[in-house]
């Protein structure tokens, strides 16, 4: 899981996370994508951030190939509504087709429009996408190293299901106030102890942290 937040815990400034980014955070964002088989994201983030596909440079593609990975990781979007514009960057500004994982409540015309626009659409047998079905759909495609870029609702579900092994959290050197949410949200709390694995500080004040799920009794 990868997130950026302000010092006061805001995940957005003026509606998107872009203004929170710093050079160190952008470098980490790119590196995490390089290492992943797939980038998973909730549809709310795709809509508000106008997500396009990943576009690794030639050197990155070569390193991925040398590791036995596909040159470009697809974006996988979870959505109950399939409310994704087929003309949006997700489908039109991408090197590889996105994967759209949705449920049986999604309107068929929207699903068909996404298929026609080139998406690899998976429909699971529930209204929303259970974490187990999400991971199974990715594993079927041999996408096992999963990077999730949020947003907070999806992170909340994954925490509830204890499916988060690591969190990379960047603290951006700014205060935001306003009504922005936190990095994880869900109807009920799901306390998960985490172990600090890395703390890096950049000269501009950015703090990069990496937290690993603490599982007592397991290595
Ligand atoms: N600071 C950061 O690093 C960061 C990262 C990511 C996002 N954000 C911000 O977070 C905000 C979006 O928050 P959010 O909580 O709405 O984001 P989200 O989790 O990306 O999106 C929620 C939506 O994703 C879909 N979804 C999530 N889990 C699902 C599941 N299990 N099954 C089916 N669909 C599922 C649903 O889409 P449908 O409505 O289509 O059914 C749901 O409404 C944006 O403002 C974005 O900029 C910040």
- Largest beta sheet, briefly? 5 strands, parallel
> What's the CATH C level of the largest domain?
Alpha Beta
CATH topology of the largest domain: Dihydrofolate Reductase, subunit A
Counting structural domains, the number is: 2
Shape: globular
Total strands: 9
Question: Which hetero ligands occur in this complex?
Answer: NADP nicotinamide-adenine-dinucleotide phosphate
How many alpha or pi helices? 7
Low-confidence stretches are none
The proportion of residues in beta strands is 15-25%
- Derived from helix and strand composition plus strand pairing, the structural class reads alpha/beta
Oligomer state of the chains in this structure: single chain
CATH architectural grouping of the largest domain: 3-Layer(aba) Sandwich
Name the helicity range: 25-40%
Order of helices and strands: EHEHHEHEHEHEHEEE
Separation of the first and last Cα atoms: 20 Å
Looking across the biggest beta sheet, what order are the strands in?
5-4-3-2-6
What does the average pLDDT come to?
97
| Radius of gyration of CA atoms, rounded to a whole number | 17 Å
Classified in CATH, the superfamily of the largest domain is Dihydrofolate Reductase, subunit A
How is this structure best summarized?
Helix content is 28%, strand content 22%. The protein has 219 residues and is of the alpha/beta class.
Describe the structure.
This protein has 2 domains: 110 residues, 3-Layer(aba) Sandwich (Dihydrofolate Reductase, subunit A); 107 residues, 3-Layer(aba) Sandwich (Dihydrofolate Reductase, subunit A), CATH 3.40.430. Strand 8 and strand 9 form a beta hairpin. The model has no long low-confidence stretch (mean pLDDT 97). It is α/β, with parallel strands linked by helices and 219 residues long. The chain starts with a strand and ends in a 6-residue tail after the last strand. The radius of gyration is 17 Å and the shape is globular.
